[in-house]
Design a protein that fits this description.
Elements lengths: L1 H12 L13 H20 L6 H22 L5 H21 L5 H25 L15 H28 L13 H21 L3 H23 L7 H23 L2 H24 L4 H5 L26 H10 L2 E6 L1 H6 L2 H13 L3 E6 L9 H8 L7 E3 H4 L8 E5 L8 H4 L18 E6 L20 E5 L2 H12 L1
Parallel strand pairs: 1-2, 1-4, 2-3, 4-5, 5-6
């Protein structure tokens, strides 16, 4: 690997010409893009752990700065002033959103930004088609090379799928659309037919000479790609949304890579390939963690049971025990081992700092405290890890599901704060449930369960009631998560 990395600069510098146009490649430009690519790789490496995530983000920003500056210096298509104005407008919008967005809204924000990446790929592809000369895509005969057409068509198709799919994901994650699966009749036949049509249209587009003759093919290709994006994501339920977001991230990367080939920009190719491959790998890992079929999720819920989905409502008439902060504090003090399961509700209430204070007090009193993190906690991978790291919770106290699930039988208290689906036994017992087969924490084996949630009327993101609410050893602490934990802290003092 090291030899390949060392040899890469010389390989890039030795490239005599642009693959599509035959123009000589500036070796310094090639080197700059290569350096940017190395920083992107280092960014991915850093983001693999909460301890190095900030360093990884910095590497990513440095790499993108190098790539953008290099492109601006060497470009010859648009007016530099216009480009800088566009960057300033986009930067202002980005800063405004970053300041206003809550941590809990990050999933839908990511989905929304993916849609913009996809739309950008579609617009770039159409710009290259309408003005191929500006992109140096014309051969000596004045026609667009068939290979460039294939790259263009695939870029437009993947970009359109990313855009429409991300729009649906955004609507579901933000609550503007139901998270329940919407299963259309004959959806698999429709999806396969649409996908086949996209491939056929791409072939016709590539091999049909003349801009006017192939215009209907690229229009039909774009429309079909937008349509299949909607069709693929609509049948996927809320329980699988984390995988969807990750997969859409992968699609946006492949769209960027395809446009990189069209534009002859190695930085776009490298960046797009890294995003595409890492997103696909992460999606596969998440599917494995959720006991889901990777193909079934990305294929629009292939194999999903149209009759499943649960009732979507909490059964409030069932008896449950409600406790107070004083009750919880007393029992926590008497415990020897406490396992904390943080979830989306903790993130909404921003209760991580109060939670850390509570655990610090318990440890001072001799109580062993551990944190249990589900692979898809908080609807986004790493979401809970980030929040706990923000509150300075030690990494050696945080454990993944497979590492800590066996310890609930020895735990005196399972302290659930804002989680639901990840502790729902329906995933193990109810084959009609949309979360069936997903690994969950065995909190029912703990001697005592404290469950913090706002009210008994709410259900998890998957829309499934939770039998843990009504167990004999469960005490419901109905309140805002942050307020309840703060009251427990006061009672412990």
């Amino acid at each position: 690997m090291l030899r390949l990395l060392l040899a890469a600069p010389f390989a890039v510098l030795a490239m005599p010409a642009h693959a599509a146009t035959g123009e000589t490649v500036n070796p310094w430009v090639a080197l700059a893009y290569l350096v940017a690519g190395v920083f992107f790789i280092l960014a991915l490496r850093g983001l693999s752990s909460p301890a190095t995530s900030r360093t990884g983000n910095r590497f990513g920003m440095v790499g993108m700065l190098i790539a953008v500056v290099t492109t601006l210096v060497t470009h010859d298509i648009a007016n530099l002033v216009e480009i800088l104005i566009a960057i300033a407008i986009g930067g202002l919008i980005g800063v405004t959103i970053a300041r206003r967005i809550a941590m809990t809204a990050m999933p839908e924000l990511v989905a929304g930004f993916h849609s913009l990446v996809g739309l950008a790929a579609v617009l770039v592809g159409w710009a290259a088609y309408l003005n191929p000369g500006a992109f140096d895509l014309l051969d000596p005969g004045g026609a667009i090379d068939p290979v460039s057409k294939v790259e263009m068509g695939l870029g437009i198709a993947i970009g359109a799928i990313t855009f429409s799919g991300s729009v649906i994901a955004f609507l579901k994650l933000s609550g503007r659309m139901s998270g329940s699966p919407i299963l259309l009749p004959a959806r698999h036949i429709i999806n396969l037919g649409t996908l086949a049509a996209i491939l056929v249209l791409t072939a016709f587009f590539a091999h049909t000479p003349g801009a006017e003759a192939n215009l209907p093919f690229i229009v039909a290709l774009t429309v079909a790609a937008f349509a299949i994006g909607f069709l693929l994501i609509i049948p996927i339920g809320g329980a699988d949304m984390p995988v969807v977001v990750s997969m859409l991230n992968s699609y946006s990367g492949w769209a960027a890579a395809a446009m990189g080939f069209t534009l002859g920009n190695s930085a776009m190719i490298i960046t797009g390939a890294l995003v595409g491959s890492s997103g696909a790998i992460l999606s596969y890992i998440m599917c494995r963690a959720m006991n889901r079929s990777f193909l079934s999720v990305i294929a629009g819920g292939f194999g999903a049971d149209a009759g499943g989905g649960g009732d979507g409502e909490a059964r409030e008439q069932r008896p449950y025990k409600q406790g107070s902060a004083d009750d919880a504090a007393f029992m926590l003090e008497q415990a020897e081992k406490v396992i904390v399961i943080p979830g989306y509700g903790m993130a909404v209430a921003q209760a991580q700092h109060a939670l850390r204070e509570m655990t610090d007090i318990l440890e001072e009193k001799g109580v062993e405290v551990k944190f249990a993190i589900h692979p898809v906690a908080g609807r986004m991978p790493g979401h809970m890890n980030v929040l706990l790291a923000e509150a300075n919770v030690s990494y050696d106290k945080v454990f993944e599901l497979e590492d800590i699930n066996s310890e609930f039988a020895q735990a005196d208290v399972a302290f659930i704060i804002g989680a639901n689906d990840v502790v729902n036994p329906a995933a193990k017992t109810d084959k009609s449930s949309p979360i069936y087969g997903m690994p969950v924490f065995d909190v029912d084996k703990a001697k005592q369960v404290f469950f913090i949630k706002r009210s008994m009327g709410g259900v998890g993101y998957a829309g499934v009631d939770n039998d843990v609410f009504y167990m004999d050893q469960t005490m419901m602490l109905l309140a805002d998560a942050k307020k309840m934990v703060e009251e427990i802290v006061k009672a412990l003092d």
